[in-house]
Design a protein that fits this description.
The complex is a heterodimer of chains A (about 290) and B (about 450). Chain A is mostly helical and about 290 residues long. Chain A contains 16 helices and no strands. Chain B is an alpha/beta fold. Classes of the chains: A mainly alpha (about 290), B alpha/beta (about 450).
């Protein structure tokens, strides 16, 4: 190695610096702010004090926190791990069998929701689920009841909206993965008399295991961080019924100006993301063995 | 070996170039820039108009000074957040900005605002400002940190056509809460499809819930939110429970909108844009700025508003003194504590708030004038048929206790109303939860039972 070896790392230095400044920097800042009483305004904005674990103690006693934690798990589990992931896989598998025109039409429709900027998608979802929105007009036309989705079923509404918005990503990942499976393998299984379901379970899924783990990790982390969609649709309400951790962190830090407490919530969120990340990376390593 | 090294060097060079391009170069030609930050929305462009005019006027009078206008698009909450974030760092802090009166004290505590006393002494126009409004820009140390742009009051706005149809004699003036309920029930009995009397509630409407709703009730019971003398927050008051009880009656009997509609942050748009013009709403508590939405160029133009609508002061609980309740807010202009050009910044502020610009802004946004020369202007007096009614409420109006704890307390009040109108809590339960929340926020020693 020596000097020449070190020189080899020189080209990645700018990238490394940018990562440190723009990614690690804010994370570190948020983490250390969570041990202070930094405020957005008022006395604590000028002279924040070190308060140790006080913010975390408050968090544990806050009745909203366990609710918020549960809602985050529910949101990620229902909309990402189950919804986006399974629907994306199903679409990818079915599209291989469908006629070209059908698969192109479905692909375009699904990707369209994903291409929309988050704020636009959020407003579209709000318009769809709101009291006199499209969904209730459809239901009303069919002579069914017109429930107030965003009020009575806020979590169902945001979960469905996130599935709608995010499925395209999983679909694209799985389409690419399925294209990599050699046709010979599938044909051989067919010769041996394996039906459609068996081929899916014993040939296709094991062969794209790596893609599944990667996809799960990415959609989980993306969904953990979803804020705009929920904020626009329900703003965390009614009565905190859709306050996931990002919404809680925003409310505390910016609405109540308590940046210290807000960053404590954000740190917990980071921790959860890290746990998921490590879990999936383990899964990936085992898959490679 | 040579080529990779060259590549690396050129990469570093370009990165450095990009980084330097990011940092603003110091102007070296003696020209100066003032950064002005304010709010602008689809339905609120009056301020934009005012600053454009002030910029033209100011730049013509001060050669070499550029005024950089930076409007922030967003509602009041989002604007406040964005501004506070900008103020946190000296490199992003604006020189002159639009500041909510109820944030003045906590922003002074944070050291964001420049003390203006020495500048105001030399400004002849300052004595034309209303004393009550001046107080809104004053901090605990007695110094003035912000100059008021305008103020507002709150009253009952009612649709005369809806009231006439229900056989209620006009002009209507409820003397106590019971009068309101009686009238609302009468309208409901006459036409169940009409919302007789709405009051905002729940967290969706944010400050609207408390400013145009709960505080009109609370301050009419003889109780208060904050005891100014002892500087403590009031808990356990009968007035608080009674106010929640009144909201419960309104919502339980279907005299107000449904709880689901009340919790939608956009409910006010329906009030102004659909329900009042369509005759679907009898009355609601709203601000003196209501005509700004309906007049020419407003976001919900309604030519018939002057004939169809009327104003009545909100009564006290049992008709006791002073007979009416109103709340006031309002906005100011302030100067950043870290400005490099305090004199120029104040010069711009005083240009923006001179008589002509103030008059135009006051008319465009249906504000209540804070300058005596604007208030006396015939254009102001005749701007809409309601100017006299809503200006008269200044004598009974109240301001929010704008301490740093206020946003959290306000949220706790909103939560209490939400619990009651959705039926999740009884007024007693919601009031008890509020008391616990207040003790949690400010500490038990800063509360007082009254």
């Amino acid at each position: 190695m020596g000097g020449r070896g070190l020189l080899r790392y020189l080209p990645v230095l700018p990238a490394l610096l940018l990562l440190l400044v723009f990614l690690a920097g804010p994370v570190f800042w948020a983490f250390q702010a969570s041990f202070t009483n930094t405020g957005l305004t008022g006395r604590n904005a000028r002279n924040p004090e070190w308060v140790g674990l006080e913010n975390y103690q408050r968090l544990l006693l806050d009745p909203v926190f366990p609710l918020s934690l549960w809602l985050t798990v529910l949101f990620v589990g229902a909309s990402a791990v189950l919804g986006q992931n399974l629907l994306g896989l199903a679409l990818a598998v079915l599209m291989r069998r469908a006629r070209r025109a059908v698969s192109a039409a479905v692909g375009t429709a699904v990707v369209a929701a994903w291409v929309l900027p988050e704020i636009v998608a959020a407003f579209a979802a709000y318009a769809y689920f709101s009291r006199d929105g499209t969904l209730n007009q459809l239901l009303g036309g069919l002579g069914m009841g017109e429930p107030d989705w965003l009020y009575s079923w806020p979590m169902a509404a945001v979960v469905l909206a996130n599935i709608w918005r995010g499925t395209a990503f999983s679909m694209l990942v799985y389409r690419a993965a399925l294209n990599d499976i050699p046709t010979e393998v599938a044909e051989a299984a067919q010769m041996d008399g394996a039906g459609g379901w068996k081929r899916l379970a014993f040939i296709t899924l094991p062969m794209i295991r790596g893609s599944i783990a990667t996809n799960l990790m990415l959609v989980t982390l993306q969904t953990l961080a979803v804020f705009t969609l929920i904020w626009v649709m329900t703003a965390g309400g009614p009565a905190n019924a859709s306050t996931t951790l990002p919404v809680l962190a925003y409310q505390e830090a910016f609405k109540f100006g308590d940046i210290g407490y807000g960053t404590a919530v954000a740190s917990v969120l980071l921790l959860i993301g890290a746990v998921f990340g490590v879990g999936y990376i383990r899964l990936l390593r085992e898959g490679k063995r | 070996m040579r080529r990779p090294a060259l590549k690396t060097l050129s990469l570093i060079a370009s990165a450095l170039f990009l980084l330097t391009a990011c940092t603003p170069a110091a102007p070296d030609d003696g020209s100066k820039t003032l950064k002005v930050v304010y709010q602008k929305t689809d339905s609120f462009t009056a301020l934009e108009t005012m600053f454009q005019a002030a910029k033209k006027e100011f730049e013509a009078a001060n050669q070499g000074v550029t005024v950089e206008l930076q409007p922030i698009q967003g509602n009041d909450d989002d604007y406040g957040t964005k501004l506070a974030l900008a103020l946190r760092s000296p490199s992003t802090a604006p020189d002159v900005f639009y500041e909510d009166t109820f944030k003045v004290r906590s922003d002074v505590d944070a050291g964001y605002l420049l003390k203006l006393d020495s500048h105001l002494d030399g400004w002849a126009d300052w004595e034309k400002f209303d004393d009550g409004a001046k107080a809104a820009g004053r901090a605990d140390d007695g110094g003035t940190y912000a100059v008021p742009l305008g103020t507002d009051t709150r009253a009952i706005w009612y649709n005369k056509k809806v009231f006439e149809a229900a056989g209620i004699s006009l002009p209507w003036q409820p003397r106590n809460w019971q009068d309101i309920l009686d009238t609302a029930r009468k309208i409901k009995a006459d036409d169940p499809s009409v919302v007789p009397f709405n009051m905002y509630a729940g967290k969706g409407s944010g400050e609207g819930t408390v400013m145009q709703g709960f505080y009109e009730l609370l301050y009419g019971t003889g109780s208060t939110l904050y005891d100014e003398e002892s500087k403590k927050w009031v808990v356990g008051s009968a007035g608080f429970k009674d106010s929640l009880g009144f909201l419960k009656t309104l919502y339980d009997e279907g005299l107000a909108v449904t709880p689901a509609e009340a919790l939608d942050a956009n409910v006010w748009k329906k009030v102004f844009g659909e329900w009042f013009p369509d005759g679907k709403l009898g009355a609601t508590v709203e601000g003196s700025y209501a005509p700004s939405f309906w007049q020419d160029g407003g976001s919900y133009e309604w030519p018939g508003y002057a004939q169809d609508m009327a104003v009545a002061p909100f009564p006290t609980q049992d008709g006791g003194e002073p007979g009416a309740v109103s709340m006031s807010g309002g906005w100011t202009l302030a100067i950043g504590a870290g400005t490099k050009e305090p004199d120029l910044a104040f010069k711009f502020l005083s240009t923006a708030l001179n008589r002509d610009n103030s008059l135009k802004f006051t008319l465009d946004s249906s504000q209540i004038a804070v300058r005596s020369d604007v208030a006396e202007d015939s254009g102001y007096q005749g701007a809409n048929p309601f100017v006299k009614d809503v200006s008269g409420l200044v004598s009974v109006t109240r301001y929010r206790p704008a301490t740093s704890d206020y946003p959290r307390i306000s949220a706790a009040v909103q939560e209490a109303t939400e619990g009651v109108i959705t039926g999740a809590k009884s007024p007693d339960q919601a009031a008890a939860d509020y008391d616990a929340a207040v003790a949690d926020i400010v500490g038990g020693d800063k509360t007082v039972r009254k």
